[in-house]
């Protein structure tokens, strides 16, 4: 990298994902008589499942959730041993909430974390996957505090924020009557702490360079291995 990028360096895991021993079978490109990167890389796991993907093109769109790299390593080992693959659920680094659902219909749901810490007071310490703190505050918390949304009265008496760079922390205070109603309806629904994760539109290029819709992440693992 250029010297101006003073914090740029390879992550230590890079050599594990792309073993140097594989370089002999890769076709390297040349620019100005200098060898640069290979025409394509050959990782040891399907990185599209580790990183996730989302995009749209002419006639096609794709949404691929993230999965745990350690589980992907286990899946590759099963394929090497000719063992059956195990069902996988989406996984996001640093997410402390819960992801529930089933591979049967390809639908999952991520839940944030909310707890009652005393009568009329709740604590939110995690948001659903891909829900950003500032956006959540502006679209959910503030309208509940000032009753600005149409036909929605004020629900929160007060709220405080104690976030860090890596964590979410809201303290919200409700009236006792409103608290009881919120608990009856379900705190996760009232505070919009659920989001859907869909695996029904995983469209990727296959080994032949053709766009193909994959039904499960296990199919992607198999295609990568083959």
UniProtKB/TrEMBL annotation:
Biological process terms in GO annotation: DNA topological change; resolution of meiotic recombination intermediates; sister chromatid segregation
Gene Ontology molecular function: any one: ATP binding
Entry protein name: DNA topoisomerase type IIA domain-containing protein
Domain Topo IIA-type catalytic: 1-226
Keywords from the named record: DNA-binding, Isomerase, Topoisomerase
GO cellular component: nucleus
Superkingdom of the organism of origin: Eukaryota
Active site location: 5 (o-(5'-phospho-dna)-tyrosine intermediate)
Pfam family membership, one: DNA_topoisoIV
Catalyzed chemical reaction(s): ATP-dependent breakage, passage and rejoining of double-stranded DNA
TM region positions: none
PROSITE patterns cross-referenced by the UniProt entry: TOPO_IIA (PS52040)
